[in-house]
Design a protein that fits this description.
The chain has 74 residues and is mostly helical. The chain has two helices and no strands. The longest helix is centred in the middle third of the chain and has 37 residues.
Length: 74
């Protein structure tokens, strides 16, 4: 099996592994950043604002979301 002795093959395998590892690390950083931002945002709200901006995890609202684009702005 001459193919597995080629430096190009090992370079390609190594680069693929590095890219995969980089993607995993970036995804972990993104989720941590979003969690920190959300926690900071909720902590900055008044109790009245917090009641409007949050809901219980077992609420039906958790599964009722979409991106509402209102194209008919006044």
């Amino acid at each position: 099996m001459q193919m597995f002795k080629s430096p190009r093959t090992w370079l390609a395998v190594g680069m693929t592994a590095v890219c995969a590892l980089g993607s995993i690390i970036a995804a972990e950083r993104s989720s941590a950043s979003m969690s920190t931002a959300a926690t900071t945002f909720v902590a900055s709200l008044t109790p009245e604002q917090r009641a409007k901006a949050t809901f219980a995890f077992n609420s039906d609202e958790r599964t009722h979301w979409h991106f509402n684009v209102n194209c008919s702005r006044p």
